[in-house]
Structures are given as structure tokens and as C-alpha cells.
Design a protein that fits this description.
The complex is a heterodimer of chains A (about 200) and B (about 400). Chain A is mainly α. Chain A has a domain of about 120 residues: Cytochrome Bc1 Complex, Chain D, domain 2 (Orthogonal Bundle). Helices cover about 30% and strands about 5% of the residues of chain A. In chain A, α4 crosses α8 and α7 crosses α8. Chain A starts with about 25 loop residues before the first helix and ends in a 10-residue tail after the last strand. Chain B has about 400 residues and is mainly beta. Chain B has two domains: about 200 residues, Alpha-Beta Complex (Sulfite Oxidase, Chain A, domain 2); about 120 residues, Immunoglobulin-like, CATH 2.60.40. Helix content of chain B is about 10%, strand content about 30%. In chain B, the strands form six sheets. In chain B, strands 5-4-13-8-9 form a five-stranded mixed β-sheet. In chain B, strands 6, 7, 10, 11 and 12 form a five-stranded antiparallel β-sheet that branches. In chain B, strands 19-18-22-23-24 form a five-stranded antiparallel β-sheet, with no helix packed on it. The N terminus of chain B is likely disordered. The chains are: A mainly alpha (about 200), B mainly beta (about 400). Chains A and B meet through α1, α2, β1, α3 and α7 of A and β4, β5, α5, β8 and α6 of B.
């Protein structure tokens, strides 16, 4: 990837002292009774690696490692407010998501009514960090990967403020974004279908 | 000439060689064949003119025109045109979130990093050097149901599933190469498309049957199916088998990407709770023939269809011709593979009266394909993904076969 496209944004160290790991949601269930860790130590492990591939340097990894986790790991330096985000919104987002984020040819992003459909950031997204990850990763649709970290932070702030989740003046950055508690934070349950042959 | 057989020509007068005029005519016929409409070709006596010779890449007969049904984000396999279980690569369904990237295989690299001893880039050639393995399994988009009107093709009902013989390397082999840490519990799979598609996958699946595949029915992957390499998670919703795989990162917790939070989750009950990480595709079946737009004659027919389950092997398929009042067990075409499409067939004599044909799959875990009513009762009305209801086709007194819309009313 480093040879096929320019790195998307600056290399970003993990945020030091990032909060406690996200809850191991559903993990105990998924891994219950499955001794995969034992299976990960096959007999041929003793023979060592086959020697394929080439070592990846820290800089090469940082150039590709764009994901942001709920505890803030992966968030870059920089920051933005709703007012700053509003300026980016008008040029990059409004034509698809609507003037106030009410939706258009793309999904609505604003709305707190839990019964409303389709879902919005305000009533369905469990983590604010996912907003950063996704906007930086894939938006705007016609030019993904072109927004700077400051622009993305601003858009995240604008969307969260429009949903009434943060104050209009709040600045989103690597320290503040992971602390935002989303209204839908606790609405998700792990998949329980395989515990039974009944329809679930 | 009058005695000439259509396909066996041992009695045909033999001549050695062709005249120059015949040669030219034959050549002209070969060059022009592609441009001649099928109806016009039908008028040509194929025994009187040499046909085109071998060529570099085969094409279907001009009389055979299966087509996917593309939208801006997906295309659907024409299930009604297929007779076996392997989907031709050019008819495999597609679901894209940022279009199809054009990736130069000589510049392609896969990064595996995170909780590993040796963060490593693998070229396509590296991936092909690993011990290879092949597996036949289905892929299915978890949004694979349309409740259309009576004039709905099988392709439109659930054409977002296809089956392939995939070849590649077991992900567990690659993870041994990089020294996966025992405390890794999830990995991120990330694509090189414009959506930079990303999903968190439990490591349990990595050490079960996950693969990185670079071949589709023995050939290179089609661009729309992930060329040059993709993740393959047998039996799991298609979105998690990330295409155009560029990065795998091992971690001790899920990443909570957009596709596994705001999308691909299932509102339950009144919609106040949602199911997350619902990877496995439940058992399902569909009758692909007879189906709309066929018009059938009274008499003997063979009911044919596909059944599959992400939980394992299909154990049985039952078929009803009276709207579910009575059922008979269909024959399954061997081999019946785990997490794979299987063909089922059942003889049926249509007496000319109103009939409704339907199929119901049961897998080896005992899971039985539900009715629409049972699905809605179990999940509420808001689930959009993982809908696998029994579907039906009705036959009117005129022999017209129509999609059984009544079965999917809620």
C-alpha cells in the first residue's frame, strides 16, 4: 500500500495513557470453551517461520494504521470544534447528508429519537471514536481520505453537537473524544443465535 | 442430406479439405459470428459451414445470456440460470462500498501487524508461496432478501449468494509466520478500496477456517470479488470476508468500526436493543425452478433449488407443493459440503390445480429454516439483516409461476 498510494495523513503514535481497554464485548461468549489459544501453537511452530514476507518498519505501519479504537488508540494530534466543522460540512458533506444532517441521498446523521428510522449517530452509534475513524477512512464519498485530522475533528464535533451530545463550544481531540458517552452506548447485545437451534 | 444426423455425422459424406471459396466463407462466418443475432444464426445450417475455430477466451453461446442484476452498490447472481453449485466467476454476486479498486498485483502488499512478534508485509507472490489449500463454500450478503411482487426472479429474491472453489492460504498459517500473540482476541481486516472497508473478527475464526484467498474457481479473483487477494470467512456474512485485503491488525479488543456498529447489526424486539457481531449465516433454501417467469404444463416436474447453512452441512431439505400442509424430503446432490450450497431436487406431478411450492432447509445442528412469521416473532419487525425465511412460488390454473408474496407478509 505504501507503494501504491501516498500515506493517508501523518504517522500517528498511539495516544499515550489511553483509557482502559474497551469492554470485551461479547468476547467471553464468543470464546467460551474454544481453546483456540492452544490451537495457535501447532507442532510446526517449533520449526520456526517459513521466512516469507519482509519486516514492516514502524513508519510503514504508521502510514497504513489509520484505525481509531473506542479508547482513543489511533487518534492523531489536532482538534476541532463544531464551528470549525460547520465550514467543512458545507463543502464536503451537506450535498449528501443535508443542511442540518437530516439526510438526503445519504443517511441522516442527526436525531435522538430512539424509535426513528433509519438510525442516526444520535440514536444508534455506540462510540464517538467510530465517527472519526469512518470519516477519515471513507468520507467524503467522492474524495475519501482527503480531509485533514483537524477537519475530521471539526466534523465529528459538529455532528455530535447537532445531536445534542456535546456542547457547541466543545473541542474534540484525542483527549476529549474517547470520553464522549454516546446515547446508544449500551444498546448492543452479543449474538446469541448459536447457543440454540431455535430461531433467534 | 435428408438423412443427416444433427449431432452424429458418421454417415455424413466425407470430403478432404475445403475449397478456397468455402474456406473464405467459413472464415467470414467465424469473424461475423459474434455480430450475428442469435435468431439469425438459428437459420444457418451448421453442417454446411465450418464454424469458428478455437480462441483465447471462451464465450457463452449467443443463445445463453445469464446476467447479474446490478445496482449502484451490488449485483445479484442469476440463480434461475444455474444448474449446479459452483457459480461462474463472472456471475458471482457483488456488494461494494466504495466501488471496485484497480490494484496492480506487482505493487500489492498485505501488512500483518499488531499483537505479533514480527510485523510483516507479504506480496502476492509471498502469499502464493505459503502452503495452499482449496475450499468450496458459499458467500452470502447478510442483506440478502427482497420481498418483491409476484413477478420476482429467484435472482431478485436472494441472488446475493454465490459459491466458489476458493484457493489460498489458511490465515492460521500466516499468523504462525508472524508469531501471533496468545493474548490477541480480535483482528481487524481492512480493504484497499475507497471505503477502506474494515471489520473486527474474533481470533477464534482465524484459527478455525479463515483463509486469505487469491483464486476463484482456479483462476485469479475477479476484480469485483477482491482481486488480488481477500479474506474468506466460510459461513459468515459476506461483508466480513473483506475484499482487496491490505491490512490485518491483531488486538485484544474489537475495533468497533462503522460497519459493525451502525451497519450490519440487528435491531431486535421493539428496536431498543440490537444484536452485534452476528456473523453466522443461518440455514436457508430457495426453489430456483420452477419459478417466475416460467409457465408450466400439467404433469411431471422436478422441483429444484439450492440450500445452504453457515453453521455446517445441510442435513435435509423438505419440499411442499400445498403451501406447507404436507412435506416430502428432497434428494440432496452429493457431495454435501459444510457451509456450502447444495442442490436439492424433488419429483412433483402438477395436476393443474392451484398449488404453492416451497422448500425448508434443516442443517446438521438441527436448525430449521423458519417461516417469515417465526422470524418476525423472534426478532421483531425491524431486523434488516440475516433474513432467511421460507419462500414460495404459487402456480395458477394457467400454469403461471409467481413469487409467493403472501408468505412474506407481516
Amino acid at each position: 500500500m505504501t507503494r501504491t498510494a501516498p500515506p493517508r495523513g501523518p504517522a500517528r503514535p498511539l495516544r499515550p495513557g489511553a483509557g482502559a481497554p474497551a469492554r470485551g464485548f461479547g468476547l467471553a461468549l464468543l470464546l467460551a470453551g474454544v481453546p483456540w489459544a492452544a490451537a495457535a501453537q501447532p507442532a510446526d511452530q517449533a520449526a520456526g517461520p517459513l521466512g516469507l514476507g519482509r519486516p514492516a518498519t514502524a513508519n510503514e505501519i504508521a502510514a497504513l494504521d489509520i484505525d481509531v479504537m473506542p479508547d482513543g488508540a489511533g487518534l492523531p494530534l489536532g482538534g476541532g470544534s463544531a464551528a470549525e466543522g460547520a465550514r467543512v460540512w458545507g463543502g464536503a458533506c451537506r450535498s449528501c447528508h443535508g443542511r442540518e444532517g437530516e439526510g438526503g441521498i445519504a443517511a441522516p446523521l442527526v436525531g435522538r429519537d430512539a424509535a426513528a428510522r433509519p438510525p442516526t449517530v444520535g440514536n444508534y452509534w455506540p462510540y464517538a471514536t467510530t465517527l472519526y475513524d469512518y470519516i477519515y477512512r471513507a468520507m467524503p464519498r467522492n474524495a475519501p481520505g482527503t480531509l485533514s485530522p483537524d477537519e475530521v475533528y471539526g466534523l465529528v464535533a459538529w455532528i455530535l453537537a447537532k445531536n445534542g451530545i456535546i456542547d457547541d463550544e466543545a473541542v474534540m481531540n484525542a483527549a476529549t473524544l474517547p470520553d464522549v458517552v454516546m446515547p446508544a452506548r449500551h444498546r448492543f447485545d452479543p449474538d446469541d443465535r448459536l447457543e440454540s437451534d431455535a430461531v433467534r | 442430406m435428408a438423412h443427416r444426423e444433427r449431432s452424429v455425422d458418421s454417415s455424413r459424406p466425407r470430403r478432404v479439405g475445403l475449397t478456397r471459396r468455402e474456406m473464405l466463407a467459413g472464415t467470414a462466418g467465424a469473424v461475423g459470428a459474434a455480430a450475428v443475432p442469435a435468431a439469425a444464426q438459428q437459420a444457418i445450417d451448421t453442417t454446411r459451414r465450418p464454424g469458428p475455430g478455437p480462441n483465447e477466451v471462451g464465450q457463452r453461446s449467443p443463445f445463453v445470456t445469464p446476467r447479474r442484476d446490478p445496482s449502484s452498490t451490488s449485483s445479484r447472481t442469476p440463480l434461475q440460470h444455474l444448474r449446479g453449485t459452483i457459480t461462474p466467476a463472472d456471475l458471482h454476486f457483488e456488494r461494494h462500498h466504495g466501488g471496485v479498486p484497480a490494484i496492480d498485483p506487482d505493487r500489492y502488499e498485505l501488512l500483518v501487524h499488531g499483537l505479533v512478534d514480527r510485523p510483516t508485509f507479504f506480496t502476492l507472490a509471498d502469499l502464493k508461496r505459503f502452503p495452499a489449500t482449496s475450499r468450496i463454500c458459499f458467500l452470502e450478503c447478510s442483506g440478502n432478501l427482497r420481498r418483491g411482487g409476484p413477478e420476482t426472479l429467484p435472482q431478485m429474491v436472494c441472488g446475493l449468494t454465490s459459491q466458489t472453489e476458493w484457493t489460498g492460504v489458511l490465515l492460521s498459517t500466516v499468523l504462525r509466520e508472524v508469531g501471533a500473540h496468545a493474548d490477541a482476541t480480535w483482528f481487524l481486516a481492512e480493504g484497499q478500496d475507497a471505503a477502506v472497508m474494515s471489520r473486527s473478527i474474533p481470533m477464534e475464526k482465524a484459527f478455525d477456517d479463515a483463509m486469505i484467498v487469491y483464486a476463484q474457481n482456479g483462476d485469479a479473483l475477479m476484480p469485483g470479488n477482491g482481486y488480488p487477494a481477500r479474506l474468506l470467512l466460510p459461513g459468515w456474512e459476506g461483508n466480513s470476508s473483506v475484499k482487496w485485503l491490505r491490512r490485518i491488525e491483531l488486538a485484544d479488543r474489537p475495533f468497533m468500526t462503522r460497519e459493525e456498529t451502525s451497519k450490519y447489526t440487528d435491531p431486535l424486539g421493539d428496536g431498543s436493543r440490537s444484536r452485534q457481531f452476528s456473523f453466522v449465516m443461518d440455514a436457508r433454501s430457495i426453489i430456483t425452478d420452477p419459478a417466475w417467469p416460467r409457465v408450466i404444463e400439467p404433469g411431471w416436474h422436478e422441483i429444484r433449488g439450492l440450500a445452504w447453512s453457515g453453521r455446517g452441512r445441510i442435513a435435509r431439505v423438505d419440499v411442499s407443493a400445498d403451501g406447507g400442509a404436507t412435506w416430502q424430503e428432497a434428494e440432496l446432490q452429493e457431495p454435501v459440503l459444510a457451509k456450502a450450497h447444495v442442490r436439492f431436487r424433488a419429483p412433483w406431478r402438477w395436476d393443474g390445480g392451484a398449488a404453492e411450492i416451497m422448500s425448508r432447509a434443516t442443517d446438521e445442528t438441527g436448525y430449521v429454516q423458519p417461516t417469515w412469521e417465526a422470524l418476525v416473532a423472534a426478532r421483531g419487525p425491524r431486523t434488516r439483516y440475516h433474513q432467511n425465511p421460507i419462500t414460495s412460488w404459487t402456480i395458477g390454473a394457467d400454469g403461471r409461476v409467481l413469487f409467493g408474496t403472501e408468505r412474506l407478509q407481516s
